[in-house]
Amino acid sequence: MSLEEMAARAERRERARLALKRELAGRVVSGRDANGLVEIGVDTSAAVVEVAVNATLVGRVDPKVLAHAVLEAATNAQRNARELVAERRSYHLGTE
After folding, report:
1. Which residues of 61-80 are buried (b: 16+ CB within 10 A; e: fewer)?
2. Could you give the CA distance from residue 95 to residue 75 in angstroms, rounded to a whole number?
3. CA separation (Å) from 49 to 27, 28, 39, 58?
4. Is the pLDDT of residue 94 over 90?
5. Crossing angle (nearest 10°) for helices 63-93 and 3-24
6. pLDDT by residue (tens digit) across 40-81?
7. Is-contact 27 43, C-beta < 8 A?
8. CA–CA separation, 30 vs 88, rounded Å?
9. In the predicted model, is pLDDT for residue 96 greater than 70?
10. What is the DSSP string of 1-51?
11. ∠76-44-48 over CA atoms, to 5°?
12. pLDDT of residue 51
């Protein structure tokens, strides 16, 4: 591979990396517990940025059930974020 080809390849890779970064910036991915009590939103680094609790149901459940629902929703949201990042990385950068 010539030096020019290597430079062009590096430039394409950098453009793809920047496109991926732009696409994922500000994205919020959500996850819910199985009973629809809690929905958690995370950014693409899997940090929690939003929490929503079903006001109709929350008064009817034990605090332990609520805590479990929060953990389940957060786990689901973080898994969804990892899957989204992997999918978009594969699209922009190919598989490595």
Report:
1. beeeebebbbebbbebbbeb
2. 25
3. 10, 8, 11, 20
4. no
5. 150
6. 999 999 999 999 999 999 889 999 999 999 999 999 999 999
7. yes
8. 17
9. no
10. --HHHHHHHHHHHHHHHHHHHHHHTT--EEEE-TTSSEEEEE-TT--EEEE
11. 60
12. 97
> What are the pLDDT digits (tens) for 8-33?
999 999 999 999 999 999 999 999 99
Q: Which long-range contacts (CB under 8 A, 24 or more apart) does 89-94 make?
A: 89/20, 92/16, 92/17, 92/19, 92/20, 92/23, 93/13, 93/16, 93/17, 93/20
Instruction: Count other C-beta atoms under 10 Å from residue 91's C-beta.
Output: 12
Q: What tokens were used for 55?
A: 């006001």
Please give the model's pTM, rounded to 2 decimal places. Answer: 0.82
The number of residues making up the chain comes to 96
- The first and second tokens of residue 22, run together, are 């732009």
Structure tokens at 19: 């496109």
